[in-house]
C-alpha cells in the first residue's frame, strides 16, 4: 500500500518527545494510527541518536505471548538499555489483558518514553485518566483530509479531485480497490466488523438490531438538528420499546468509537449553549454510502459533514449557531479565534446566496464570516462575507 507522510500528526508526536506523559494515539478504526506509529519509528531511527526503540505490535503473531500485563512488563524491562533514551511503542494495546497495569508499572519507573495506540472502544478519551495514573497526551487521528487525498493520488486538478473525494472519502484502505462498489464493500466490512463489533464487545449490547438502526438513522440525518426523543419516536416504529436513556447511551457509544461527532447548538446573541437538540456528523461520509447507499444524495449535507470534520481536524471546537431563529452552520472557535461559517452546495442563484448570507450579516460582532460552497470560482467578498469554493478551502489546510 502506498504511504504518505502525515506531517501534521508526526510533528505533534515529535513535539512531545521526552515528556513524562503517556502518549495515546486515538481515532476511528483504520484511520492510520498504526502507520503513524511506524512513521514515527522511522523518524527516530533516521533522525535521532542514542535511542533504544522497544516496538510491540499486537497484530503480529510474534507478540502473542505478551498478551498479559506481567509478560508485557517483563519483555519491556528485558529490552531496556542503560544510557539511552528508551522509547516504547505499542500498537493495539487493548489486545493485552490488563494492559493498563503494565503501562502504569513502566510509567512509574520514569525511564521510558511511552506511545500507544488501541481500539477506541477499549481506549476511550473519557477513560484515559482512570486507566492510567500518569498524565496522558492524546493525539486524535482523522481519515485523510482532502489535501492528503490529493497528495496520495497526485492530483493537480482540484475540481476533479474534489468530485472523487466526495464519493471516495478519506479511508485510505479503500483506495486499493478499483470500483466504488468494491470500496464500499470494504468500508461496510470495516464499519461492521471493527467499529460495531468493538462497541458490542465493550458495552455488551443486548439489542444489536437497535444499534444498527440507530447508526443508519444518524447516517441518514447527518447535518440535521435532531433530539434523542425524536430518534426514539422514529425507531419505536420498528422496535417494541425504545427508551430515551437507551438511545442516549447508544449514541454515546458511537461517538466514543469516533464513528460520529456530536455538535451542540450555540445561542450567538445570548452567548450560551442550547440543550436537547444537536447535530451529528459522520467521521467520513464514505461510510454512509457503504451502509445505506448513494441514492437521493443531498450534496449540501455531505459538504457540511466534510467541513465539520475538517474544522475538527484543524483543531477547532465547533457549534451550530442560532440567531433570531436562524441557523448558522458552524461557529468555529480556537483560542481567541472565532469564525462564522455557512456551507452550501450551490449559491449561483441570487435568492440562495441571500438566504445563506442573511444570518451572517445579522451577527453584529467583528469576527470573520464566510460561505463555503461549490462556486468553481476564486475567492471573493459579498458585503464583507468571504465566499470561497469548498475545494480551495479544503486544500488550504493549515
Number of domains: 2
**How many helical stretches?**
15
CATH topology value of the largest domain: Arc Repressor Mutant, subunit A
Order of helices and strands: HEHEHEHEHEHHHHEHHEEHHEEEHEEEH
* Helix proportion: 40-55%
Largest sheet: 9 strands, mixed
**Alpha-carbon Rg, integer:** 22 Å
What is the strand tally?
14
Shape: globular
At CATH level 2, the architecture of the largest domain is Orthogonal Bundle
Which strand order spans the largest sheet, edge to edge or round the barrel?
Answer: 6-8-7-9-10-11-12-14-13
Relevant CATH superfamily of the largest domain: Winged helix-like DNA-binding domain superfamily/Winged helix DNA-binding domain
Structural class: alpha/beta
Sheet-strand content, in percent, reads 15-25%
What is the CATH C-level name of the largest domain? Mainly Alpha
What is the residue-averaged pLDDT?
92
What is the rounded distance between the termini?
26 Å
Uncertain runs: none
Features:
398 residues, alpha/beta, Rossmann fold, Arc Repressor Mutant, subunit A, 2 domains, 5-stranded parallel β-sheet, 15 helices, globular
Topology:
Layout: H1 7-15, E1 22-27, H2 33-47, E2 51-57, H3 69-78, E3 85-91, H4 99-108, E4 112-117, H5 128-131, E5 136-141, H6 146-153, H7 158-168, H8 180-203, H9 208-220, E6 226-227, H10 228-235, H11 244-256, E7 260-267, E8 272-282, H12 286-292, H13 299-313, E9 317-323, E10 326-334, E11 337-344, H14 350-361, E12 369-373, E13 380-382, E14 385-389, H15 390-395
Parallel strand pairs: 1-4, 1-5, 2-3, 3-4, 7-9, 11-12, 12-14
Antiparallel strand pairs: 6-8, 7-8, 9-10, 10-11, 13-14
Helix pairs in contact: 3-4, 8-12
